């Protein structure tokens, strides 16, 4: 017998680390979802840049059902065909020679940071262990990844956290020059900061980061958990920037919502994760890898990737048109279908008001911090649904502005 559950059930049985909104979606198709009451929403959030092919994509459903009837799980004392096929495709499509599979972006980053330190230990000794990251970055929720991440609020109350980690301002090469040394084992960066406000890396900055890493025998780690798998219009964002990392992490869109993560590395670097140095019970399981293979086969095509830029232009033009009428944004920025609109001063710190109002209008959007509305829809969302979503967004913005004036 199926139990009836409501939003109140969350407060009764779940740990309170989340504060979910009132609606409970129960069904999704493409870029639309429906809640318990049957209300329809256009999804411009994509599960935080995850459902890159929308909900219940027929190809992925087919692959999942087929694999479910064959093999769900094997321990890593054996390998499996879906994992090998996926790894082969990832190495063929990227700079990387080797792959480690995990269950999430946080786990992929944990593996990347461990590998960076282990590689430095193997080649230069224990003194070369420092990691440099950037303020406002986000790399996961494990103790190591929140320490490398550049947002102190995520470390509060969990100290002491791992040491040997420094931070500097994103896109500020002079600060990085002052911090980096022969003790630095890795510089970790997102090609476009997602949680930190949807801020792309300056091309020249990224190139100079690569040069500094080379000068100091330091590994460059790109966190592409949010920006990867077609989100920016190329398979990975580093291709557009023209800078190749030594290690790259992926998750989110890789499984279109099925838990899977991957750390990619060059052969030389990957050697340091020798037998017994790291592992994952579920990482590389056949179900996750079969689905991920179908995801990249579907996304990494000229039709889908070129469509990302077309949809980017539609959204940006739509946001500009809204702004001309309502003067609510101070900046509109991003790459591909990871777009941020920073709100003007009267609403600074309260971008969530627009998210709540949007839900009332039948629209799902995101925020990035307190100041930025974030849009990360399906890469294949129909243009007419994008247009309707922008109409609903304007209605929500109109409501928030009216309420602020009334207050």
Q: List the strand order in the largest sheet.
A: 4-12-11-10-7-5-6
Tell me the number of strands: 17
Fold-level CATH name of the largest domain:
Aspartate Aminotransferase, domain 2
Mean pLDDT: 96
Structural class based on helices, strands and sheet pairing: alpha/beta
CATH architecture of the largest domain: 3-Layer(aba) Sandwich
CATH homologous superfamily (4th level) name of the largest domain: Type I PLP-dependent aspartate aminotransferase-like (Major domain)
Radius of gyration: 21 Å
Give the fraction of residues assigned to helices: 25-40%
State the end-to-end distance.
Answer: 47 Å
SS field, number of helical segments = 14
Structure description:
The chain is of the alpha/beta class and 407 residues long. The chain folds into 2 domains: 7-56 and 302-406, Aspartate Aminotransferase, domain 1 (Alpha-Beta Complex), CATH 3.90.1150.10; 71-299, Aspartate Aminotransferase, domain 2, CATH 3.40.640.10. Helix content is 40%, strand content 18%. The strands form 4 sheets. It has a 7-stranded mixed beta sheet, with helices on both faces. Strands 1-2-3-15 form a 4-stranded mixed beta sheet. Strands 13-14-17-16 form a 4-stranded antiparallel beta sheet. Helix 9 links the parallel strand 10 (219-223) and strand 11. It is globular. Its main location: cytoplasm. It catalyses: N(2)-acetyl-L-ornithine + 2-oxoglutarate = N-acetyl-L-glutamate 5-semialdehyde + L-glutamate. Homodimer. Its EC number is 2.6.1.11. Pathway: Amino-acid biosynthesis; L-arginine biosynthesis; N(2)-acetyl-L-ornithine from L-glutamate: step 4/4.
């Amino acid at each position: 017998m199926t139990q009836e559950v409501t939003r109140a059930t969350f407060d009764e049985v779940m740990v309170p680390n989340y504060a979910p909104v009132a609606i409970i979606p129960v069904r999704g198709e493409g870029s639309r979802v429906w809640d318990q009451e049957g209300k329809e929403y256009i999804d411009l959030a994509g599960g935080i840049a995850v459902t890159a092919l929308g909900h219940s994509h027929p190809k992925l459903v087919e692959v999942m059902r087929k694999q479910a009837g064959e093999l769900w799980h094997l321990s890593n004392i054996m390998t499996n065909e879906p994992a090998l096929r996926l790894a082969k495709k990832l190495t063929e499509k990227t700079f990387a020679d080797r792959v480690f599979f995990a269950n999430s972006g946080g786990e992929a980053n944990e593996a990347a940071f461990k590998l960076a330190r282990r590689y430095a230990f193997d080649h230069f000794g224990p003194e070369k262990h420092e990691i440099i990251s950037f303020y406002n970055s986000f790399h996961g929720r494990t103790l190591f990844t929140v320490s490398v991440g550049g947002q102190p609020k995520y470390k509060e109350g969990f100290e002491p956290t791992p040491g040997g980690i420094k931070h500097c301002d994103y896109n500020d090469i002079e600060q990085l020059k002052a911090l980096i040394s022969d003790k630095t084992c890795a510089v970790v960066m997102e090609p476009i900061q997602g949680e930190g406000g949807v801020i792309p890396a300056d091309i020249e900055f990224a190139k100079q980061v690569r040069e500094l890493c080379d000068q100091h025998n330091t590994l460059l780690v790109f966190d592409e958990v949010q920006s990867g798998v077609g989100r920016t219009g190329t398979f990975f964002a580093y291709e557009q920037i023209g800078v190749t990392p030594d290690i790259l992490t992926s998750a989110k869109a890789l499984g279109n919502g099925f838990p899977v993560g991957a750390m990619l590395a060059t052969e030389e670097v990957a050697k340091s994760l020798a037998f017994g140095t790291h592992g994952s019970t579920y990482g590389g399981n056949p179900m996750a890898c079969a689905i991920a293979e179908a995801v990249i086969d579907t996304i990494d095509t000229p039709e889908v990737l070129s469509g990302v830029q077309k949809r980017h232009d539609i959204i940006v033009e739509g946001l500009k048109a809204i702004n001309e009428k309502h003067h609510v944004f101070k900046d509109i920025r991003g790459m591909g279908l990871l777009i941020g609109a920073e709100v003007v001063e009267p609403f600074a710190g309260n971008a969530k008001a627009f998210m709540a109002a949007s839900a009332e209008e039948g629209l799902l959007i995101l925020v990035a911090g307190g100041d930025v509305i974030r849009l990360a829809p399906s890469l294949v969302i129909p243009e007419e649904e994008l247009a309707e979503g922008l109409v609903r967004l304007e209605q929500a913005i109109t409501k928030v502005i009216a309420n602020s004036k009334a207050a």
